[in-house]
Design goal:
This protein has 603 residues and is of the alpha+beta class. The protein folds into 3 domains: 115 residues, no CATH class; 160 residues, no CATH class; 294 residues, no CATH class. 33% of the residues lie in helices and 23% in strands. It has a 5-stranded antiparallel beta sheet, with no helix packed on it. Strands 7, 12, 13, 14 and 17 form a 5-stranded antiparallel beta sheet that branches. Helix 3 runs antiparallel to helix 13 and helix 7 packs antiparallel against helix 13. The longest helix is centred in the first third of the chain and has 34 residues. The two termini are 20 Å apart. The N terminus and C terminus are likely disordered.
Length: 603
């Protein structure tokens, strides 16, 4: 006899008109897709052995008006029975975000180097976020799974409706489809689906929780330094003979600094920084200052032609000098058969005020330099006649160099680049007495010691260095470099700056110290990105508790995502019989024993 015949015989023997159903068959009646189940109705091995004995079948023990979906209330069925794992999962999720908040609060604003664990802060955040995400999804999935049995117990549902719930419990795609397929379902089911969808963002957003901005951090025990010169005295170094001839051995580096400035190669000041960034306190020192004035319009000019040669000679008197001794310069324009046309492009001269004024004091310039320049364009003379066009391109400048007191402030070194900060010059006066001259800053607002000292020979040597730029006593190469620099005032300033930087580390220099800063990464917690994890963890826990409450009220066993209810199904009444919510024992027939179901599933 076939299985169908056996079950038909079984139904006849019991006197029921319920339609037998084999695995794979559609359930009959208006509620054909509906299946009912209780734990008391699960067949045992004894029932399998008594396949043909109707009385050996388990008794469903369903009284009139009691749904087989529901469980009989007794002392063994407690409120949270069967939910231990899900509740533990929700608790773990809450503990994870609490731990995340505690860690974030403790590490916010601290140096990354203070983190001592073998794994990085990002790894810890990632682990906690991943665990929290897993617990969120698990709790929400189990809630949806249980809601499908509650939904089945409360109303007539087709089996494909169970599939919609099942898909929603398995991932974000099924949860998304639930919003348009799971019509008239529980609000909790929609909330659970939304939680599963939103949980996809937990891991990516957790990467935004921590950032590592870099800041300058004070390094203790290490200091920046810079020398300064309150006095400048090489004593008798480089001085020889009765007349006191001063050689470059006295301070050759000062001459090199001046020449480097001429070629726009000013060396960096001697600021020492043993770290990535440094700051320096304000300090004062001895230095050199320059100033230049354009005197083209006030320069006197006198020109005459040479009667013997085709030559034009001009003499110029520039305003300046001491006690009527002006700055006198000359130029020429000459043409010849051998060399063609040529004319002066630059000429310089220097005046040393101390050589002319016995009342000299150091508030006067060390040196005055007069400069005349002409356009070097190719202006030729036809038929060997003297051209006068070049005269109209005259540019006359007077520059001065002075010994001054200088104040430095806001000096820094950033990533190896020195920023001297603000440098202000203050004039000095002196009584010119003895080998050492004491010079004083008269301005009482000067921010340091107002008395400076310089050796007479060092004073003379500074003047000697500046005379290098006099074309009447020195090489024209320096004058040519000045001409082609393109900016005479800026070039003179470079010369003064280079000499001042060198004088910082003079023979009597003292050291001032500052602070050293290292670039360190700090931990910054962006708490806004933790909010999603908190909301989802709390929401999944609340939804789970709400589902447990509904399960208890509906008196449905906590099957959740188990497959047992599908393996041990029941046949519902045919159309026209009693309501599916009022059951008697005659309405229930078991499907074939489990062994037969497994065989059917394997086909």
């Amino acid at each position: 006899m076939t299985d169908r015949g056996q079950y038909a015989e079984l139904n006849t023997a019991r006197g029921t008109n319920a339609t037998p159903v084999l695995p794979g068959d559609s359930l009959p009646g208006s509620h054909a897709d509906r299946m009912i189940f209780t734990e008391a109705s699960v067949p045992t091995e004894e029932h399998v052995a008594n396949k043909g004995n109707v009385n050996a079948l388990p008794n469903a023990k369903i009284q009139s008006g009691e749904s087989p979906l529901t469980s009989r209330p007794d002392h063994r069925h407690r409120f949270f029975q069967g939910w231990a794992l899900q509740l533990a999962s929700a608790l773990v999720g809450i503990l994870c975000f609490v731990a995340l908040l505690v860690i974030a609060t403790n590490i916010h604003g601290k140096r990354l180097s203070s983190w001592t664990l073998p794994i990085t802060p990002n790894a810890v955040v990632s682990i906690l976020s991943t665990v929290s995400q897993a617990t969120i999804v698990y709790a929400a999935s189990e809630a949806i799974s249980q809601l499908k049995w509650i939904d089945l117990a409360k109303r007539s549902s087709k089996l494909r409706h169970l599939q919609i719930f099942d898909d929603a419990s398995r991932g974000a795609w099924g949860s998304l489809k639930f919003f348009w397929l799971g019509r008239q379902s529980s609000v909790l089911a929609y909330v659970s689906s939304l939680i599963i969808i939103c949980s996809l963002a937990v891991s990516p957003l957790s990467q935004q929780i921590l950032s590592y901005p870099q800041r300058s951090t004070l390094v203790t025990g290490i200091y920046s330094s810079v020398p300064r010169s309150q006095a400048y005295d090489y004593q008798d170094k480089g001085v020889s003979g009765v007349s006191g001839v001063i050689s470059s051995l006295r301070d050759g580096a000062l001459e090199a600094a001046a020449i480097s400035g001429l070629y726009d190669l000013v060396r960096s000041p001697p600021f020492a920084c043993p770290g990535s960034n440094c700051t320096y306190p304000a300090f004062t020192t001895l230095g050199i200052a320059s100033s230049c004035t354009d005197v083209t319009t006030t320069t006197e000019q006198f020109c005459n032609n040479n009667a013997t040669y085709p030559e034009l000679q001009c003499n110029y008197t520039l305003p300046g000098g001491i006690d009527g001794y002006g700055l006198n310069l000359s130029s020429y324009g000459l043409t010849s058969a051998h060399s063609g046309w040529s004319h002066t492009i630059i000429n310089t001269t220097t005046i040393i005020p101390m050589d002319y004024d016995t009342s000299f004091n150091t508030s006067s310039p060390l040196v005055q330099i007069g400069i005349i320049m002409f356009n070097d364009s190719d202006i030729s003379a036809a038929n060997f006649e003297v051209s006068t066009e070049w005269e109209s391109t005259l540019q006359a400048t007077v520059c001065e160099f002075s010994l001054v007191a200088q104040s430095y402030s806001n000096s820094t070194s950033i990533n190896g680049t020195i920023q001297p900060g603000s440098i202000k010059s203050w004039p000095l006066t002196s009584d010119m007495g003895g080998a050492l001259w004491n010079m004083t800053v008269q301005d009482e607002d000067f921010p340091g010691n107002r008395i400076f000292t310089i050796n007479y020979f060092d004073f003379e040597y500074i003047i000697q260095v500046l005379e290098l730029f006099d074309t009447t006593t020195s090489s024209m190469s320096y004058a040519d470099a000045l001409y082609y620099s393109g900016d005479v005032p800026a070039t003179m300033q470079n010369i003064a700056t280079g000499m001042s930087y060198h004088m910082l580390s003079g023979p009597n220099a003292t050291t001032v110290t500052g602070d050293v800063f290292a670039i360190e990464a700090y931990i910054q917690v962006n708490r806004a990105w933790i909010i999603l994890t908190i909301i989802l963890s709390c929401s999944s826990a609340l939804v789970l508790i709400a589902v447990i409450v509904q399960t208890h009220k509906a008196k449905v066993r906590p099957w959740k995502s188990k497959l047992d209810p599908l393996l041990y199904g029941f046949v519902l009444p045919s159309k026209g019989e009693e309501s599916p919510h009022t059951w008697s024992e005659s309405h229930v027939e078991f499907l074939p024993r489990r062994q037969t179901i497994v065989e059917q599933l394997k086909r």
